[in-house]
Design a protein that fits this description.
Blueprint lengths: L8 H4 L17 H5 L8 H14 L7 E4 L3 H5 L2 E4 L3 E4 L16 H9 L3 H13 L10 H33 L2 E6 L2 E6 L8 E5 L7 E7 L5 E5 L1 H4 L5 E4 L2 H6 L3 H6 L3 E4 L10 E6 L2 E6 L3 E2 L4 E3 L3 E8 L5 H4 L10 H34 L17 H15 L7 H19 L13 E2 L13 E4 L6 E12 L2 E3 L34 H8 L3 H12 L4 E5 L2 E5 L3 H12 L2 E6 L3 E6 L2 E11 L7 E7 L5 E7 L1 H5 L9 H13 L3 E10 L1 H15 L5 H12 L4 E12 L3 H10 L3 E5 L4 H10 L8 E3 L1 H19 L9 H4 L6 E6 H7 L17 H31 L2 E5 L3 H15 L3 E5 L5 H6 L2 E5 L6 H4 L3 E3 L4 H39 L12 H11 L1 H10 L5 H6 L5 H4 L6 H26 L13 H23 L5 H21 L2 H6 L9 H6 L2 H28 L3 H7 L1 H7 L30 H6 L29
Parallel strand pairs: 17-29, 17-33, 29-32, 30-31, 31-32, 33-34, 34-35
Antiparallel strand pairs: 1-10, 2-3, 4-5, 4-6, 6-15, 7-13, 7-15, 8-9, 8-14, 10-11, 11-12, 16-35, 18-19, 18-28, 20-21, 22-23, 23-24, 24-25, 25-26, 26-27, 27-28
Helix pairs in contact: 5-7, 6-7, 7-14, 12-13, 14-31, 14-33, 16-17, 20-21, 22-31, 24-26, 24-27, 27-28, 31-33, 31-36, 31-37, 32-38, 33-38, 36-37, 36-41, 37-38, 37-41
């Protein structure tokens, strides 16, 4: 939507809307439209600007002024930061993606880490332990683990940030030639300034946003590759102003160049630039066609000169980067809430025990009744209760052990390495392995509900291939032999008879080439002659090889197809085009080129043949060609049937037609054409009317069918993900027809769906809004919402354009009068605030309604959207549906979306790496997304849930024994275990088995995970770990702690040992409870293990053996002699564990703790098995049935009413104006000898804007 269309919704009701109109600039806001720039607030800045304007231009709407070769002038423009520091208004060219530096690392990193509730908790705990009166454990027992945890996390963060520093240094230290002191000198990118003149060479990266001044190519053309920006690999041309092309070729001329560029402020709109060059008392308008953007690459141009307009953070590619958000998983957020609950539980528990201690002191423990407990202190019971409260806070701090977060990080890191090592996600063609670029989000991969995907380079390969055609009613392209009979034999056509063939066309119909060469059907020759003549492709000779440069990849594919069939486009000038027709070189005079635009959806060329006849050749969308056909044209119906057949196979179709023109008719029309060409007002509209006048009574030749090749496995991946209840939205900058075609190709859209466009959705939202207003006024009782507005018998899908998206979401901006505004009264300001609040509330309600509607659709395709709109759509779903989102793309225009989503995935292995650098995960093909989510994501989520459930259980079981023990020790905060057992329990005795499960466990194999995508659904619902699971874990821990304490307690009451001794002392009791606990929790994780390996068995039994080995060592006399005050349980373990009845007590305790768990789980699996349980029970049968999937035939049914044409014309006009101007003529002496092309734009690297 153009920037002129920014009035309110009511004002727009009468306006005509076009789906292909590009939305307004992402950076426009009311403030920016209202004032020149918010950076020009201080008086000094205004004074400098005013002086500059008076010197160079009386009145200018532009505030960005850059003077060539004059750093002093450009440095005058400053802005004030932090209220006192003045810095240059223009950014330097160095970029920064890192988070820390040497000075900020420690404070910023610690601040981030202490945002975690547990870390802050342990810091408070450490402070408490430093107070002797309340400390029951030594302060270092908390300090050492806390320092270790913070240190490990800090080291990991430092390593990640050092990698960013290295990447920044690599980019900032790239070399470029800058004009300094009268000559070009090699300079680092970071030292380039706004206004510098730079010289670029072939294959150089463009270091900043640069205004093209001149190049070594004729008329200063420059070819650039924009893969880094949008994933496209087809070349685009840029063209300098004619005046700079003539006068700024030499170094000395560039040195004396002192032009002033006034242009728009930096913004993130890649396809927009407006400005003016003032030089030698003349002004020259500038547009995006003369701007070289940072991130692009110079191709096929030896030397390029330009002036830096935007540098560093002001460049468009950096403006598109979006804000980097700190991403946290849903489980992280849940863990924080659970930690808060445990804190509350701990406080309540400690408070209750403190009250008990107060009561005990006042009733039982006073000096008169229990004189043997008197400690020499006469503190009142209330004070002793207060001290006991803090003592219990310290004793039971293991309810949230500090090792929890370290263990989580270890598990995530292990899962990330498994992703990196997965050979089934390795893309051999590009030597690209999968890469987990973050280690903090792995389990979130198992909870994805919405996927937002780019199209070009993500779903498609950027390869256009000529597949079929219909000529005079006959369809060609099936498997046929040389005599026209259909066959089952798959054999490529041999084009070796054609010395110009490029060898890349895969065609299987042997009859068509024979028909062309024999001349039996003149229509076939006319068909391919049209393809060779009717286009705006430019050609160059590269060492004897013909290379085509096309504005549209489809156009390049068609011209290349004609070349392979013997009709070879050789060269063109302003007024002529030369082709080889089956070896015979013929030159046609070009009388007019009627170029494509988004309204016409066709292009035509008027030629004079070597025989003197005048012909018009036309190609375009079927809907516009059929409207202009002569009533007597042949094969109309049969060609329409062929178009339907092509559309059913989701091929991109195009109709071809021609017309003979008499000399008299052309002379009359040409006068109108020349008059419209020089029109000073409404030139485009005038030309369109003239074009319409000649493009009538056309004769149909046939139709072409081009395949926009999907990446391997895209359809299967989307189909599988949809079975896993994952909704997939496609967000693309491409045209509506193209995006819709791809939607059908990849099974996102099917023929049983009802497509709703922007107008229909807008009407629905307006209806819902009116219904809501009527209900408020009591006019109706019928509730109309997203759930009821769609008919019940339809399967809705939404295809909406960016312009409609802005209108529906009320994102358009209102332009204000900036020359004069009457000051508002206080009442008017108050009314305006109230109105703005109401508008904002209505806007939010409308946005929520839109999201509700969209989320009810089976598929959503948003086309012609800007990078910022992509991020906006993602954010709306996050905001209103609270859903976990994933965004996947391959270009710089996807970066904002990737950063906004919970998980960002970049397609690597292409030439554009901007998306990968901003992503969380990267791999080479879209199909790997299925394995990333359904296998690694699901496994990671289940492992993390098992880990957390078990971790909380084992610590509740461990810690709450202190609680039960308190009832028998006067609530004195005495520990139930030996101090060293408390220290080592979470470090050695119970940590390894759960870590192994967290890293290695699998409930079903990877193949079964892919075969049964519905296994993914519980993760989306958060079924495996939530508050319910946490409270069940808490209950389990409480029950086990009761068993662990009271069975040994009962066994110790009135018991006599085998040797006549009664080992009923505190130390023997502590050994018995600790042994029972250690064996129980390790056997419990064994019950939780689904996938057994040697490592699992070793970790479980090894932990138990390690416990007994360390305990016997710590209870030995030798270590007590060395450290008598530290190791006080001398001989406790040998003395206690030589009693058989204590072993029986341990066995009984373990059995009572575990057998109910086994019984309950068995009962659940029998009575109410889950989907996983069913698959596990039939695992062997499913594994035997698994076979390699057969590739599905590429044939899809589609409604006849669906628009067939999917021809992907360029988003801007083609090269017609360039050709007509005469500035596209290549170097003289263009060779026409046979050669093999290495074209970038046809079948190997074509692309659409995405």
């Amino acid at each position: 939507m153009s920037t002129d269309r920014i009035s309110s919704l009511d004002d727009d009701a009468s306006e005509r809307r076009f789906d292909d109109v590009v939305p307004y600039s992402d950076d426009e806001t009311d403030n920016e439209l209202d004032s020149s720039t918010e950076r020009l607030d201080d008086t000094e800045q205004n004074r400098v600007n005013q002086q500059t304007e008076e010197k160079w231009q009386p009145k200018s709407e532009y505030t960005w002024k850059v003077k060539a070769n004059d750093r002093n002038f450009n440095n005058q423009f400053t802005v004030t930061k932090y209220g006192c520091i003045k810095t240059s208004k223009y950014s330097g060219n160095a970029i920064r993606t890192y988070k820390y530096n040497i000075l900020t690392f420690l404070p910023k990193n610690l601040m981030e880490q202490f945002k975690r509730a547990a870390n802050a908790y342990f810091l408070i705990l450490l402070i408490l332990q430093a107070i002797p009166q309340i400390s029951t454990l030594a302060w270092y027992t908390t300090l050492v683990p806390l320092v270790v945890v913070l240190g490990i996390t800090a080291i990991k963060d430092a390593v990640d940030d050092i990698a960013r520093h290295k990447m920044d240094r690599i980019v900032n230290n790239r070399k470029c030639e800058v004009l300094q002191d009268g000559r070009f000198q090699t300079t680092k990118w970071k030292d380039i300034k706004v206004g510098d003149i730079v010289r670029l060479h072939k294959d150089d990266f463009i270091p900043a946003d640069i205004l093209l001044l001149s190049s070594s190519e004729p008329n200063s053309l420059c070819y650039v590759e924009t893969a880094e920006l949008d994933g496209e690999t087809n070349l685009k041309f840029k063209m300098s102003l004619e005046v700079t092309d003539r006068l700024l070729k030499k170094e000395k001329d560039l040195e004396s160049f002192d032009g002033l560029v006034e242009c728009e402020e930096p913004n993130n709109r890649l396809d927009k630039f407006t400005g003016t060059l003032y030089w030698r008392n003349q002004s020259y308008p500038l547009d995006v066609n003369s701007i070289l953007l940072r991130g692009c690459t110079v191709r096929n141009t030896e030397i390029t000169h330009g002036i830096v307009i935007f540098a560093g953070a002001d460049t468009k590619i950096m403006r598109n980067g979006g804000k980097t958000n700190f991403k946290r998983t849903k489980i992280d957020q849940l863990m924080n809430y659970i930690v808060y609950l445990i804190f509350l539980f701990l406080i309540l528990l400690s408070a209750g025990l403190a009250i008990g201690h107060t009561f005990w002191e006042s009733e039982i423990g006073n000096a008169t009744r229990s004189w043997y407990l008197y400690d020499g202190e006469d503190d009142p019971p209330s004070y002793r209760g207060f001290i006991a409260f803090w003592g219990y806070i310290i004793v039971m701090n293991t309810l949230v052990p500090i090792s929890l977060y370290v263990s989580v990080e270890v598990i995530r890191m292990g899962q990330s390495y498994f992703i990196n090592w997965d050979l089934q996600m390795y893309y051999a063609e590009k030597d690209t392995p999968a890469k987990a670029r973050t280690t903090t989000l792995t389990e979130q991969l198992g909870q994805i509900e919405y996927i937002f995907s780019d199209k070009t380079g993500t779903l498609t390969q950027n390869i256009m291939a000529f597949k079929k055609c219909s000529i005079s009613g006959t369809t060609y392209g099936e498997l046929c032999n040389a005599v026209g009979d259909k066959t089952d034999r798959v054999e490529l056509v041999d084009f070796s008879w054609n010395s110009y063939a490029d060898g890349n066309l895969k065609f299987y119909d042997h009859y068509l080439p024979q028909l062309i060469r024999s001349g039996k059907d003149p229509a076939t020759r006319e068909f391919f002659k049209l393809l060779a003549l009717c286009h705006t492709v430019m050609v160059e000779d590269n060492s004897g090889q013909i290379v085509y440069q096309a504005a549209s990849p489809d156009e390049g594919a068609l011209v290349t197809a004609a070349r392979n069939f013997g009709f070879v486009f050789l060269s063109r000038t302003q007024n002529a085009i030369t082709i080889s027709e089956l070896g015979i070189t013929r030159t046609y005079e070009v009388l007019a080129i009627l170029d494509f635009n988004s309204d016409r959806k066709r292009m035509s060329i008027i030629l004079r043949t070597p025989e003197g006849q005048i012909k018009l050749y036309c190609k375009g969308a079927d809907v516009v060609i059929y409207e202009r056909l002569d009533s007597n044209t042949l094969n109309r119906e049969v060609t329409e049937e062929a178009l339907t057949e092509f559309a059913d196979e989701t091929l991109r179709t195009l109709c071809l037609a021609y017309k003979d023109i008499s000399e008299a008719e052309f002379a009359v029309w040409n006068k109108r054409f020349q008059a419209a060409s020089v029109s000073t007002s409404n030139r485009d509209e005038a030309l369109s009317r003239v074009y319409e006048a000649i493009e009538t009574n056309l004769l149909l030749i046939g139709a072409t069918a081009i395949e926009d090749k999907l990446q391997d496995g895209v359809s299967e991946t989307i189909e599988t993900l949809k079975k896993g209840d994952i909704k997939i939205w496609v967000l693309t900058g491409d045209k509506k027809e193209t995006a819709e075609n791809i939607g059908y190709s990849c099974n996102l859209l099917t023929n049983d769906m009802t497509i709703y466009d922007g107008e229909a959705i807008n009407d629905m939202l307006n209806t819902m809004q009116r219904n809501r207003a009527n209900m408020a006024e009591g006019k109706t009782n019928t509730i109309l919402n997203a759930n009821t507005i769609f008919p019940h018998d339809v399967k809705p899908a939404m295809v909406i354009t960016g312009s409609w998206l802005n209108e529906i979401l009320r994102e358009k901006k209102r332009r204000k009068n900036k020359w004069f505004r009457r000051p508002k009264t206080e009442d008017e300001k108050k009314m305006q605030i109230e109105k703005d609040q109401k508008d904002e509330a209505a806007k939010e309600k409308r946005q929520k309604d839109f999201v509700d509607l969209a989320c009810l659709c089976t598929a959503v395709v948003c086309c012609r959207v800007t990078p910022k709109q992509k991020a906006m759509v993602v954010n709306l779903v996050k905001k209103y549906k609270k859903a976990i989102t994933l965004a996947i793309g391959d270009g710089a225009n996807d970066v904002n979306m990737i950063k906004t989503a919970h998980i960002g995935v970049g397609i690597s292995g292409q030439e554009g790496m901007q998306a990968v650098m901003s992503s969380d995960y990267a791999f080479g093909q879209f199909r790997f997304l299925k394995r990333l989510l359904l296998v690694h994501g699901r496994w990671s989520y289940i492992r993390m849930c098992k880990f957390l459930t078990y971790f909380f259980y084992k610590n509740f079981a461990f810690t709450l024994v202190h609680f039960w023990y308190s009832f028998f020790n006067g609530f004195s905060a005495q520990t139930a275990y030996e101090n060293w057992f408390i220290t080592l329990y979470n470090v050695l005795y119970s940590s390894l088995p759960v870590l192994v499960v967290g890293v290695l466990d699998q409930d079903v194999t990877d193949k079964l995970s892919l075969r049964f995508p519905t296994l993914y659904i519980p993760g989306q619902k958060g079924s495996y770990f939530n508050f319910k699971k946490f409270f069940l874990s808490l209950l389990h821990g409480i029950i086990v702690s009761l068993i662990i304490f009271f069975i040994p307690y009962g066994a110790f009451l009135q018991t006599m040992g085998q040797d006549g001794e009664a080992p009923t002392d505190y130390q023997s009791f502590a050994v018995t409870t600790a042994s029972s606990l250690t064996i129980t929790v390790n056997f419990q994780i064994a019950l939780d293990t689904s996938y057994w390996t040697f490592v699992n068995a070793f970790s479980v039994f090894g932990s138990i053996v390690l416990y007994f080995a360390i305990m016997f060592d710590l209870h030995s006399a030798g270590i007590h002699i060395l450290f008598p005050s530290v190791f006080t349980f001398t001989g406790a373990a040998p003395n206690a564990l030589r009693q058989p009845y204590l072993w029986l007590t341990i066995i009984l305790t373990v059995a009572v703790s575990l057998l109910p768990v086994v019984a309950v789980r068995f009962l659940i699996q029998v009575v109410n098995p889950t989907e996983t349980d069913k698959i596990q029970m039939n695992r062997k049968k499913y594994e035997i049935e698994l076979r390699p999937k057969q590739s599905r035939p590429r044939s899809f049914q589609r409604n006849a009413s669906v628009r067939r044409s999917g021809y992907a014309f360029s988003h801007q006009q083609g090269y017609a104006d360039l050709i007509s101007s005469g500035r596209s003529i290549r170097k003289k002496g263009m060779r026409s000898e046979p050669g093999v092309s290495s074209s970038r734009t046809h079948e190997t690297e074509g692309a659409n804007a995405s």
